[in-house]
Model the fold of this input.
Amino acid sequence: MIEIENLCKSFTLHNQGSAVIPVMAGAHLRVGPGECVALTGQSGAGKSTLMRMIWGNYLAASGTIRVGTLDVTRATPREIIALRRDRLGYVSQFLRVVPRVPTRTVVAEPLLALGVAPDVALARAEDLLRQLNIPARLWDLSPTTFSGGEQQRVNIARGFAHDYPALLLDEPTASLDGANREVVLGLIEAAKARGAAIVGIFHDDAARARLCDREIDVTHFTPKRAA
Amino acid sequence: MKDMQPHTPAHAPDGPLLRVEGLSKHYGARIGCADVSFDLWPGEVLGIVGESGSGKSTLLSCLAGHLTPDAGQVIFETRGGPRDTVQMAEPERRLLGRTDWAFVHQNPRDGLRMGVSAGGNVGERLMAVGARNYGAIRETATDWLGRVEIDAARIDDRPRQFSGGMQQRLQIARNLVTGPRLVFMDEPTGGLDVSVQARLLDLLRGLVRDMGLAVIIVTHDLAVARLLAHRLMVMKDGRVIEHGLTDQVLDDPQAAYTQLLVSSVLQV
Amino acid sequence: MNAPHHDPDYNFAYLDEQTKRMIRRAILKGIAVPGYQVPFASREMPMPYGWGTGGVQVTAACLVPEDRLKVIDQGADDTTNAVSIRRFFQRTAGVAATEKTTEASVIQTRHRIPETPLTEGQILVYQVPIPEPLRFLEPRESETRRMHALADYGLMHVKLYEDIARHGAIATAYAYPVEVEGRYVMDPSPIPKFDNPKLGDNPAIQLFGAGREQRIYALPPYTAVRSLDFEDYPFDPSKADHDCDLCGASGSYLDEVITDDQGSRMFVCSDTDYCETRRDAGHRGRFSPPEVQA
Done:
């Protein structure tokens, strides 16, 4: 489902003497349906960079990133938007939303964007919020006023609203208490079971061990300090 | 890499709504905009960013037919098939301007009739396309005031009694009442308080999604661009120097100028 | 009321021949394009703007020595404005004057259309202060001209919408806008809307002159003229619930006259010739003296 071949990335800092900073070289990754792969490596090794490139957020210098049949490195913005709408989901660590949009709508938005009827989308959103123990009295409020843990759970609910065939998870269990952590792990396991291909960053070792079929140390893709 | 993706409608149509090719406008020897080309599909929001004098407003004026370009085509998929609006006769273009197209000005005073009630402002486009039933016009105006979150009791008040944010929402209602398919926006949140901006952005996102609007929005506010636009065009000295997915352009800018632009603003 | 020959110190009807030709060209163009405002080079006249300089120039361009001229102001032949314009043409053109609508070949009017139906061959000249019906809401002349050119008239209905929103009905009582031959929207000058139905399908030529604004427009005989309205708020010419207290007329436009300090009032025809003609024919109203019939 997700196939990465010979992927390279560098940043050119035009306003700092046009310094070229290579950050990734020769990355390979293959994640099949129902598979969960963890990205490991110390901070700064390029885990987030690789995730961002799969998401289409960072441009690749060379190589290919296939999500389904689409090569993200060569896709047009329209194609990437369509990919993110129905095939590729993403749960980041931070929730950034327009203030004042009610939580229920924030979670239902991915479904509304797919054209799902509002009542169906909102019912699904409420079901997820209930599972993740967000009290119903908060559903009409904007999540911007919530605690960090609550925001994280709203973010997860949003990421799981639609059954994406491919999922990117950036520390999905960080800042969660035991009960909610268990709910999230259950959601991820359910996604695996229905055949989703998952790439994740997990600092939670126990979670990683329980969910992931393989680990990829991105340090191997760090370019050697050449001349 | 942000959570909020602007929406696109699920039912993507089978062709672009607008095709712009080689659009150029010169003011004597000075370049207004040069050789601009892009496609816009229904439901898509295209942001045009750049600093003052970069040509983004000139480009918007040429696209909307307020200025005549020196060269290029602006091909709109009218209900009767594709037409180059640059070559259209003035009456046709104006008809388009009150049916399928809409234009939201930065300053609500430029887009509203300040001496006319809120209901009259919203009703004008309906009357311009032949609505002649007062009750029906008023009902539609009331509905639209509700959609832009203006109390229906204010329908007979004049816009000068409204706050800046309300005036801007009224301008949007006035523009969208005839169900346009393409909306041009020139800094629609400029000059508004941040909290008022958020409300307006949320409103616009909902309307874009529900109506499947195609939008071309000129802004110098990258935060606004990130929340509203699917794609960004970065302009400098009248030329498009970078064009791509909004979050990619903002998070991994390629051109020197874009890098400068992005690094010059506070975190967006 | 026949006048002497015209004062030889003036060219016939005051204006020089070239000017009259220029105005006639504007009039002909106006007749060819009913309701369209034709710009013309308005001249300084020996009277202030607002006193009918536009109408006077149009009348001057139309007059021939055989004409019989009637001048009315708000329906009356004997008000200052009417009298001075009538004298002006008696002196400068030497034409005959009359107060009888039926006898006049040219009628210059301010703010009324005579009650007596006009006939083919007659010319009715209106004095117009502001010819632009869209001016109320769009101050830019360049924009209003474009709106006329493109028949972009949504704004005109906005004015009527505002009336209903504010007053519960279309409160515009005079200068009520009309659409001419399904094309141009026109200001009929500040006549009461009561007179609007007389604009359409009228056998006379109707000419409109605005001196300060330098515009002439026209309705040729038998032109279709429709007063703008909404389906659910149709045009209503409105009629006072009174008959004329002097001649008993039930279908004419009435002026209200306060008759004493106690608030007593009477209603009389604004068209003095119409009222007199009826009284002469024996019609009587509530206040008619019982025994004065000659």
User: Anything to note?
Assistant: The two ends of chain C are 22 Å apart (CA to CA).
